[in-house]
Amino acid sequence: MPSFGKALNSLKYLALCSLMLAGCKSVEPPAAPVVIAPVPLVKQPRTIKIGLALGGGAARGFAHIGVIKVLESQGIVPDIVVGTSAGSLVGAMYAAGNNGFVLQKMALEMDEATISDWSLPLFSKSSGVLKGDGLQNYVNKMVGNTPIEKLKKPFGAVATDLHSGQPILFQRGNTGIAVRASSAVPGVFQPVKINGREYVDGGLVSPVPVRFAREMGADFVIAVNISSQPEGQTPVSSMDVLMQTFTIMGQSMNNFELKNADIVIKPDLANMKGSDFAGRNLAILAGEKAATAALPELKQKIKAMQEH
């Protein structure tokens, strides 16, 4: 019996050890904490309003179309458009929803006679040679008689109050009349009467309307300067003399205002006179070339402002 008791005790001991070992195996070591790396926040570029300030320069204004074509091809679509004189003509039609290629088609099909309605008699007591009705009607036809405040883009046309000498920014009302007032070169077009006041060409007070683009809410202003250098032109006709006079008068004012632009695009139009409507295609090409050259700097500055 004693030997049987010892054997039984040995079996109990072995069973107990087995249970203890089984219990030890079932206990897993605590899992190591999972460390989740922080996800870096990607800063979204802020939305900025781009303004396009289109300067005056008569027939040289066709260059604005080339600039617009290049900007659009790169996805740079201005939110605000402001124009002086020829810039107001192109700007109004652009703000109406016409892209650069449509503007080019309009320009090449434009009959100069439709915007040059000579007042008769030429030597009447009127203070200008052209009435401007043709220009007004042409613009209204091209924008579908849409008033400024209902155009597809915010638009402003700069003119000069003939009596006070102060600039005015037309942002409401008849689009054709506003463009006509902005383009009324003294001695060429008769002053435009609006609400009892007379207005003439905006180039007298704001050759390239950068400050007005800012006033309309633009964060980033692209200025297009189509004025010529006084020494670069030899006046031939009375129109050339007047445009040369405008250029000389506006030089210091232009330099001051252009300093407030984020970038200035200046098409090479040294050999084109303001009266050269036949050179419209070359002007468009000059605008394309100048805008293309400015693209690297333009993109870099827009990106920097978006990320600031």
Automatic annotation (TrEMBL):
GO BP of this protein: lipid catabolic process
Name assigned to this protein: Exported phospholipase
Chain ranges for the short sequence motif DGA/G as given in the UniProt record: 201-203
The species this protein was found in: Undibacterium terreum
Domain of life: Bacteria
InterPro entries registered for this protein in UniProt: Acyl_Trfase/lysoPLipase, NTE, PNPLA_dom
PANTHER family with a match to the protein in the record: NEUROPATHY TARGET ESTERASE/SWISS CHEESE D.MELANOGASTER, NTE FAMILY PROTEIN RSSA
Keywords: Hydrolase, Lipid degradation, Lipid metabolism, Signal
Active site: 85, 201
Placement of sequence motif GXSXG: 83-87
Record-annotated PNPLA domain positions: 52-214
Annotated signal peptide: 1-22
Gene3D superfamilies according to UniProt: Cytosolic phospholipase A2 catalytic domain
Keyword GTP-binding in record: no
Recorded GO MF terms: hydrolase activity
